[in-house]
Amino acid sequence: MVIGIIGGGAAGMAAALTASENENVQVVLMERQSRVGRKLSATGNGRCNLSNMHAALRHYHGQQPDFVLPALNRFGVAQTLSWFEELGLYTVCETSGKVYPYSDQANSVVDVLRLNLNRPNIELRTGFEVQRVRKTDDGFTVSDGNENISCDRLIIACGGLAGSKLGGSMSGYKLLGKFGHRSTKLRPALVQLKSDWKALAGLKGVRANCHIQVFCDSVLHSESTGELQFTEYGLSGPVIFEVSRDVCARSGSWSCKLDFIPELSDGQLFGMLDRKRKTSLPVQELLTGILHNRLGRVLTQAVGVSMSSTCDSLSDTELRQIVQAVKAFEVQIAEPMGMDHAQVTAGGVLTEQFDPDTMESLLVPGLYACGEVLDIDGDCGGYNLQWAWSSGRLAGISAGKEM
Ligand SMILES: Cc1cc2nc3c(=O)[nH]c(=O)nc-3n(C[C@H](O)[C@H](O)[C@H](O)COP(=O)(O)OP(=O)(O)OC[C@H]3O[C@@H](n4cnc5c(N)ncnc54)[C@H](O)[C@@H]3O)c2cc1C
Question: Which of 101, 112, 197, 273 has the most crowded CB, counting CB atoms within 10 A?
């Protein structure tokens, strides 16, 4: 039996390796780029956060989030990590639950998958961009416009629209659309937020731990705690990705409140700064030793105190204003960055048209889909790749079953 797989990303490679465990199966893995796993090698800031020990239903979104359950139950985190170990990847779990390759290099994950694809019953076709798909009497024919490839069963693992420079495209939605599969509206998720805040230019590259509260038209919508990264155009980092889903989902006037020392109460921070007030340090050094130097100066300056004066000249009111700036700094959000910059696509092909126990289409027998092309997206922290492995493996094992 020949299984065609379109897309050599995380889900497609997991499907190919799993399907090929059946010796009677011949896999043809088609990838439009010149190499497999291009997006994978850019994940997790080059470290590849490949899974999360806390992977569970609450971390997934879509019209039917519980669609993930059969795949996660069958190929959950433990099974995924032991599968990777069998393939030759040594992984490490951080206290947060995030799993990374021990080498700390995303390329290790790609390499291990790529090397394992070198099996007699897997044919890898890179540079093969599928343009057309067709159901035939005894299976499927796919074509890149020059060459036709026939297969008995077909898995579509083309990924989503997010991250177009790394391979994100509309292709999977279009190919599945040819078979009558409908998609939801697509939105970016896990994406940076743009801001016109003038001080950003001076904060570019600064990282800070913070608690963020996000408001739409002054109503609190979501909050999160974690690492924030300043960029020249706005706010980035895991804590921003976490709240970006809400910002992308509705229009309105968005703003956020940043607490740069969530561990301390206002009173505790006031006490700490009050001790410094007894010194004749320049005001611009008031937050030195507490926050990143550049951030400390920007926050102090934002209050409007004279930066050339000394700490002992600060009034109680000014000190309280500085505490307020550290603990509840307000930033207006202009808009989320677009799909090109997003890590994942919210929305996708309707899951109600697929069997969650097999990933097979309910419209076209023998057709399967897995990974980001489906209307499932996960939180920041390794949940999206876990979905790619779990759904890819389930599609691979189901498609590889004897006819
Ligand atoms: C910058 C960045 C960082 C990320 N970091 C993380 C992270 O640390 N942890 C995490 O869990 N998730 C992360 N993600 C999300 C994660 O990478 C994706 O959710 C995951 O790769 C989806 O897997 P997939 O196989 O469905 O799609 P992809 O990995 O996108 O693979 C799809 C493949 O199909 C190919 N393809 C598409 N159309 C065709 C066609 N017509 N013919 C042939 N081939 C085709 C594409 O070229 C691509 O290689 C990140 C995403 C980005 C963009």
Answer: 101
Let me know whether 332 and 360 are in one domain: no
Rounded (10°) CA dihedral 141, 146, 147, 153:
-30
- 232 and 326 together in one domain: yes
Whole-structure pTM value = 0.93
| Domain span including residue 74 | 2-188+344-399
Q: What is the Cα–Cα distance from 403 to 86, expressed in whole angstroms?
A: 28
Q: Provide the residue-wise pLDDT of the chain in tens; the chain has 403 residues.
A: 999 999 999 999 999 999 999 999 999 999 999 999 999 999 998 999 999 999 999 999 999 999 999 999 999 999 999 999 999 999 999 999 999 999 999 999 999 999 999 999 999 999 999 999 999 999 999 999 999 999 999 999 999 999 988 889 999 999 999 999 999 999 999 999 999 888 888 899 999 999 999 999 999 999 999 999 999 889 999 999 999 988 988 889 999 999 999 999 999 999 999 999 888 889 999 999 999 999 999 999 999 998 889 999 999 999 999 999 999 999 999 999 999 999 999 999 999 999 999 999 999 999 999 999 999 999 999 999 999 999 999 999 999 987 6
73 vs 56, 58, 303, CA distance in Å?
9, 14, 52
Q: Distance, CA 25 to ligand 1 centroid (Å)?
A: 25
User: Of the residues 18, 36, 39, 345, which should be mutated to test ligand 1's pocket, given the most ligand atoms within 8 Å of the CB?
Assistant: 39
Q: Are 234 and 193 in contact (CB under 8 A)?
A: yes
Query: Does any ligand 1 atom lie closer than 6 A to the CB of residue 236?
Result: no
Q: Which residue minimizes the CA distance to atom 9 of ligand 1?
A: 382
- Give the ligand 1 atom nearest the CA of 9: 31
144 & 217 share domain = no
